[in-house]
Write a structure and sequence with these properties.
Length: 380
Amino acid sequence: MSEANAGERTRVGVVGLGGMGRLHASTFEEAGATIVAGVDITEDAREEFAESFDAAVYEHHEALLADGPVDAIVVTTPNRFHESIAVAALEADVSVLVEKPLAHSLESAQRIADAAAESRATCMVGFHNRHAAATQLFDAQRARDRFGTIRHVEANYIRRRGIPGTGSWFTDPSLSGGGALIDIGVHALDLALYTMGFPDIVEVSGTTRAGIGGRDEYADPDGFSGGWDATEGSYDVEESVSAFLRSADGRTISLEAAWATNRDPSMDFYVRGDEAGAHYEIGDSECRVLDTGVSGVDHYEDVVLSGDSSVAGYRAQDERFLASVRSGRPISSNTISEALQVQRIIDAIYESAAQNRAVRLDPIERPVTSSQPVSHPNVQ
């Protein structure tokens, strides 16, 4: 949609009508778009979506793209199907917001990137935590050079018990591409790379674990899985992962992610700079700046910055995507190039775990697509 007709309401279709699809549909509608279509293989989901959003519904995405007209689609299907849907839309010059991760494998992600590079449409990847208030507060301090050079990031996304459930696509590696790492660890990994300005990661060491969720007596005190049955469906994925990343210039990232582990849950994010540091929770609205001073007596200077907790990262992300679709300008955040780097490291962590050794990565070839990653000042 060009600037000439930017005043028109953007027409959005949603492919995958589960919880995430409905969340995006509501957010886009509130942001001024028109939800014109929904796609799902489940009839009940289609009927409910049609009633809620007064939208046409289809069983397959090909019918939506053929029927049109639509300016953009949102892809919230199991990871394995991201490629076929996103590529078809991009080849039709329909803009795409694809939920994280970009795909279930690096090869599939690369094919989406190739299609995006050839398309006139926008393609954005759903890493919404970058847009949460805590991250935005951190970004503002970084822009002031508050932290100096960021040397290390500790990234955590840990549930004590929070496996999505056997029998779901999340625990079927043929559909998901993995377990806790590719589901929730990907959020922490993306945010860590974003915080450092997407450095060139040259070495990855990782370990994956399983053994808790496959038990008949698995305890699920919060009812996260909606009822546990160890005999139902596939459960051949990791429950937790630890990884260590090293960049070409010696900066590092440590990652902990888990669906199930015997420790306290955590979404803590620690940034260590040589001038100051920061601590916040992924997706939160507060950021604590960790500094020191010598005025008077040597002392610590911990400052808590509070943002608007009512502004969700999803909303800011979706509004940014809509702005790009309406203006025709390339997206400057959550780009395909960045998402491909995240996928590359996920692939390397799994390879490292399988081989029980560190894995070396070749230098990144830039640019991956015509949309360049966002530039971060004062990050070296």
